[in-house]
Amino acid sequence: xxxxxxxxxxxxxxxxxxxxxxxxxxxxxxxxxxxxxxxxxxxxxxxxxxxxxxxxxxxxxxxxxxxxxxxxxxxxxxxxxxxxxxxxxxxxxxxxxxxxxxxxxxxxxxxxxxxxxxxxxxxxxxxxxxxxxxxxxxxxxxxxxxxxxxxxxxxxxxxxxxxxxxxxxxxxxxxxxxxxxxxxxxxxxxxxxxxxxxxxxxxxxxxxxxxxxxxxxxxxxxxxxxxxxxxxxxxxxxxxxxxxxxxxxxxxxxxxxxxxxxxxxxxxxxxxxxxxxxxxxxxxxxxxxxxxxxxxxxxxxxxxxxxxxxxxxxxxxxxxxxxxxxxxxxxxxxxxxxxxxxxxxxxxxxxxxxxxxxxxxxxxxxxxxxxxxxxxxxxxxxxxxxxxxxxxxxxxxxxxxxxxxxxxxxxxxxxxxxxxxxxxxxxxxxxxxxxxxxxxxxxxxxxxxxxxxxxxxxxxxxxxxxxxxxxxxxxxxxxxxxxxxxxxxxxxxxxxxxxxxxxxxxxxxxxxxxxxxxxxxxxxxxxxxxxxxxxxxxxxxxxxxxxxxxxxxxxxxxxxxxxxxxxxxxxxxxxxxxxxxxxxxxxxxxxxxxxxxxxxxxxxxxxxxxxxxxxxxxxxxxxxxxxxxxxxxxxxxxxxxxxxxxxxxxxxxxxxxxxxxxxxxxxxxxxxxxxxxxxxxxxxxxxxxxxxxxxxxxxxxxxxxxxxxxxxxxxxxxxxxxxxxxxxxxxxxxxxxxxxxxxxxxx
Amino acid sequence: xxxxxxxxxxxxxxxxxxxxxxxxxxxxxxxxxxxxxxxxxxxxxxxxxxxxxxxxxxxxxxxxxxxxxxxxxxxxxxxxxxxxxxxxxxxxxxxxxxxxxxxxxxxxxxxxxxxxxxxxxxxxxxxxxxxxxxxxxxxxxxxxxxxxxxxxxxxxxxxxxxxxxxxxxxxxxxxxxxxxxxxxxxxxxxxxxxxxxxxxxxxxxxxxxxxxxxxxxxxxxxxxxxxxxxxxxxxxxxxxxxxxxxxxxxxxxxxxxxxxxxxxxxxxxxxxxxxxxxxxxxxxxxxxxxxxxxxxxxxxxxxxxxxxxxxxxxxxxxxxxxxxxxxxxxxxxxxxxxxxxxxxxxxxxxxxxxxxxxxxxxxxxxxxxxxxxxxxxxxxxxxxxxxxxxxxxxxxxxxxxxxxxxxxxxxxxxxxxxxxxxxxxxxxxxxxxxxxxxxxxxxxxxxxxxxxxxxxxxxxxxxxxxxxxxxxxxxxxxxxxxxxxxxxxxxxxxxxxxxxxxxxxxxxxxxxxxxxxxxxxxxxxxxxxxxxxxxxxxxxxxxxxxxxxxxxxxxxxxxxxxxxxxxxxxxxxxxxxxxxxxxxxxxxxxxxxxxxxxxxxxxxxxxxxxxxxxxxx
Lengths: 747, 617
Fold this sequence. Notes:
- The structure holds 2 protein chains of 2 kinds.
- Chain A has 4 domains: about 1-75, Ubiquitin-like (UB roll) (Roll); about 130-295, Alpha-Beta Plaits, CATH 3.30.70.20; about 305-370 and about 540-700, Rossmann fold (3-Layer(aba) Sandwich), CATH 3.40.50; about 375-535, 3-Layer(aba) Sandwich (Dimethylsulfoxide Reductase, domain 2), CATH 3.40.228.
- Helices cover about 30% and strands about 15% of the residues of chain A.
- Chain A has a 7-stranded mixed beta sheet with strand order 14-13-24-23-22-15-16, sandwiched between helices.
- The longest helix of chain A has 15 residues, at about 75-90.
- The relative contact order of chain A is 0.12.
- By secondary structure, chain B is α/β, with parallel strands linked by helices.
- Chain B has 24 helices and 17 strands.
- In chain B, β15 (about 565) and β16 (about 575) form a beta hairpin.
- In chain B, α10 (about 215-225) packs across α13 (about 325-335) and α17 crosses α21 (about 510-525).
- Chain B is globular, with a radius of gyration of 26 Å.
- Chain B starts with 5 loop residues before the first strand and ends in a 10-residue tail after the last helix.
- The chains are: A alpha/beta, B alpha/beta.
- The interface between A and B is medium-sized, with 34 and 31 residues.
């Protein structure tokens, strides 16, 4: 279709609005309230344009481009109107610096950071230099404000973790309110009062914490002025460089931008269009991850135990000591641990080391479940969504954003598990069962569906299932689990409702050969729902594939502890701080980790390694998507990436194949060895293509028998907040306040 | 069926109720009972008669005798003389201001004589809580015809041919609006009645809902049939409890009679309504804000297009019309488009209900044919300005409208003429002003109103009106500066062109229209520091003329701040340092004596010491 903007003939397809169409063609129309991903608000009135044949002016952000339209973005009247409107906005925002004739020179002379309570000018505002209001003033060209300046004199709100709120700077663009309501579903803030008193606020003016805020930071990210800011970034200057990274704190794999100055992290925020997170983040990646780099608990150099005490040592000394101790025991007495928080390269290197050491046993200290690949974005297309035992608003906030999108399109949400969960008000059907009763309840659900004949699934032989479910009596099962039988029937009927249906679950319902995972698998097969596994750790999904590369001898953590106690295993090498293996003390204990943990403090040799921010690497996220990145920061002290530590150890032990440690070589090697990682060989960091695991993990197409006695799922770390032994809840007070807030239960 | 020999119709609109109409009704019933006349005389509470200045009102039928300003003390005499002895009581009748002879019959009273009732046809003659009485006066006939004899297209064609235009203020052709909604394919569709009437001084919709709620319901059923809606909402501002109550009763009764709900009149058509109460904001009278309010959101307007006809309540095609518009529909269907189009002018058909308030003798509610001249409304129906004062201007259209000065009083009342003159039909509020009204003060009053009621969403309205109000307040306080008028005009232009909704787009109108016709008054405030009407407190001073004062102590006692000193038979003096310019002394001084006067300009300033002048209010 054709359109003319300012005399330029343009073509377009689809139904863009005039603002996005203009911008796509390099025509700048100022705007302060528009934001990608949010519905048009048309509140700032700066994007008003003229359309030939129409009276008055229309906002470009809210006007659909039409075939044959003639649009004017500039004219004498329009320019005057735009300037006047901006002047009005500035009359209620500290504007002295914005229109000062010296403002460019001023930056040269007033370049130190400020720690003031209130910003009464740009030079005192933490948003100076990255403020959209500054940009618009520049673009429109205002050199004075012909109205008296009104300072609203509102109290600056600093009573919440992470976020400061200074509404004296607010221009009421509404982006924060809209992102909170339309995208995140928390609805914590809204406009209150009206007229001149209108401002953004919380219910009864409570703190954000008391209003159910999750501190995802989306409001801070969309705020065009310094009204909403990250407190930790405020006294800092602007970053002088940025680096792209993948957040390692959960299985989503959000793409983030790390702002750095003088080698320190200034701020971490989501990129505009990360493939997994689409510009969203959560409290951990947004506000907490930054504290990992300089945590007082970091291990800065190797340590060896001398006379019963761990003391710092050089790398060579540490390698020699460790190798010596390792060789003291026969291969079958050696074991190592693997964590799902290591990068692909680190775990691969670990597998090579395990094989070269001919170890007797190894264990994964965190989950790794194999399942078909999928995309988070597909969840928003579902019509029926059931959460099994996972409070996704807490564990996978980005998945919640996709679920919320589906709900806004009319999908229905149900919860099954040992609740309560924090997003209860969005849940149409809430089935909170007593812990331990999940398996019989799942069986009962399947039975009801069979009885009522509402199964949608096309796979499996339902006679098999009938036999499997034979002894179950749904009413009794329900009562024993503390669930109303009617609710159970309603849930069953929900499954007969709209397709497509999606089951979301965490590791509790993973592969388990007869437990809750199998029961859920049967149910999803019966109903024709897609079962999507949400791994908790940043590389849990990757570990599930990389297991194949380890030698035989995988065992559970409990069994390994038992083996150490009974002295079948005498030498143990821990990965990532060895969380979960505290108090385990074989004859030889070698530890690798970034942060001091109880387990590492028992070790004979400790090697300091890097976090994901300090090494190049790659993860496989819960979707099965492989994402790679380069190091954002240099490692602290003399810490080294785990790939290098294992290579160094391997070289001293004279193992083969540990010479080349550069990441590209490791990737090529892995891609050649295992077809699932074929895409890794050519993957460059920031590659815009979607690169997934190449697996054909088919969901089972037969119903499998259930053994209720089998404990549910793989063993996972009890605390999903722990990263490589780092406990952010302990170290970052704000996160403790968020986690412990009672209000989140009623969000 | 019982036949009474007389009906006493007690006006029970909010105005009369607040002067004690229900007490009068109770007194009447008691007296009639006491006299043993209960079987012969029926007392009924009706909706607003419109002549609010003269309440409490009782109309005696079949004689059509109009009694006004009744108190419970008048009741024994009234019953004795008129109902027992058959002698109507002249003392309780209406007497025109310039006259001594009372006018006994309602139809002869000037206030009523010039009116033409369509929307208000049932006012004062039925009990609004009795559906049977509505039906007896051809109620629901239009609906029956629409549901059983007409197709939706025919209904819309009839409304279009009638020329009915939206009575809420914008004047959009109603038939066209319905057609736009009917042709949308999405389902379900909704109907909304906008009863959020927020203009200060406007009470047209309130009176319709209190006097004749079924007229609105009937209109809505017809409209629902036309566009294809099964659900309707009547949004009434929460400050109208009596209207809400009467409407609630009407809805219940209509459902019981099969005139609302499923399968209306056995026609197979389903339509039901629910009442939604407003939450105290003027802006929720704007259609998209009203829709947001029904949805449970904050009542902030949304950008149009899309218009509600395409995407309204919950994103569905929605037709939203004003109370008065709906109330016109049954009559049009029942009596035909040609009949309706025979009233009014070329472009403005039918009648319009106006609330006539302010400096006028006959304050009340009037329904007149479009095209009637303004001076007919002010002088004939309104009875002119009280106290012999001179007419100065009439403000039409509330905070969105403007004033018409004396030289334009021969203007016909229709949409186009009023807009051309810088005013606006609006919802029909007419505020009459005399020489004692300051136009700057009026502009400030309306601007403050819109400033407070602005939702705050868009910058031009939220901030622009505030900047304008500050300048105006400065002018009124005597702090105006050269260039202020130009500033006001530029701000007005910005607010009008830049605002998102009608509230902002029309908020500057009172300022622009007073500037257009009374620019000299602004100049006097700014340059001469004078308020010609002697209203603006900072620019006036109250003074007692020593030659006229008789020392009666009345003003002294009236003064709330004890600013007047004096003794009996001695000249009183006002202490200007204490005077708060409330005007109590001015009112207290007997008219014959007239010793207190308001001075302005040089004379005023000479009295008031600089240091004690009030600061900007």
